[in-house]
Design a protein that fits this description.
mainly alpha; Amino acid/polyamine transporter I; two-stranded parallel sheet; 22 helices
Length: about 475
Amino acid sequence: MEPVTTPQLDSDPPLTTESRAHLLPTTADLRARMVLPSLPEAHRSIPIASGASWFRKILAFAGPGYLVAVGYMDPGNWATDLGGGSKFGYTLLSVVLISNLMAMFLQALSAKLGIATGRDLAQACREHYSRRTSLFLWVVCEIAIAACDLAEVLGSAVALKLLFGVPLLAGVLITALDVLLVLALQGRGFRLVEAFVVTLIATIAVCFAYEIFFAHPLWREAAIGFLPRAEILRNREMLYIAISILGATVMPHNLYLHSSIVQTRAFGASSRDRREAMRYAIFDSTVALGFAFFINAAILVLGAAAFHTRSLNNVAEIADAFKLLSPVLGASFASTLFACALLASGQNSTLTGTLAGQIVMEGFLKLRLKPWLRRLITRAIAIIPAALVIGFAGENKVTSLLILSQVVLSFQLPFAVIPLIQFTADRSKMGEFANSRLITILAWIIAATILFFNAELLWLIFRSA
């Protein structure tokens, strides 16, 4: 019988009819081919019943999208959204909306890549590009992870200070201990990690629902704020915050993370099974990012309603917002819940940052480190600049550093987005699941938009220097 081949990434051997059932390889298969999988302990570990109802399948596939979504509501978002809301009112809601739609689209492509090829984005880059290019992309991604971790360190430290009076520098050092939480959860199974993340997301959502209830936003103005304005491109300060919102929303390392963790579901190897897996995975991430959009918009609306409408236009510091929320809103628990949500946000992002770092290092370098060692290295890279800024510049520079970290993330985006678009449009890698021409055109428009915003900001900075 003639062997039946299925398109795979360039380094894959052709699959015979007998091996078709193993299109998405097991850990043993990958090791035999000298390809280390990302998160091998979780690879295809969550069963999917073929005869289950659509609702049970939705529940079975639910989880990875929420792990990805927490990166879209980390402490970096707080600084950018609060600053944008207090200074410019509801104007930047359009940026939050556009950024979130971009995120939904790009995360859907990431899920498609992982399910169709059995590879995460890091592995695909290593197998497609030269070693020099792969190393460059790895370094760029590590910078993005460090920038994200910096936001988590600062956000958690600020929350500890607001809730318990812990000095900010001490709080930064305490955050190094969260490695114990990561290790405890990872050792008990991937489903527990997902459940913990969803619980924290629900906590954040409840806190902000309470804040918004007492803030009494101007809903008509908020609705108008979702319409894009040319003023955003002309105003350097507004553009700076807009790009930091973009960087805080569409995170590059989340594209690597999502393409790996969608493979934790043990779906079938047939085209029909993989297409169904893509459908449920994309539904999962879209719904999860919908929650992220609600929280990001709520933070900006809270900044606009509580501060901008009361002519408090310079409340960009998280600590200032904490002090003002209860007296301004007349709600005694407003400030406390604000700080609790911030702490939940920082710890949530810690989990996904650890997983993303593991995936990126394994995928690009075939290098596996013990989770605690990987976590300590990443956290040390984030703690050093945070401690230096707090020690020399003072605590009042924390929010500025948070916003800067998100701008850094925005500049890293093209180095993840462009390979993702290239791979998912390549029929030799994706087979029948390759992007249609319309999807490809839309994807390149998104990439061009990101590049345009970055170039516009650089031009404004250069012109005013």
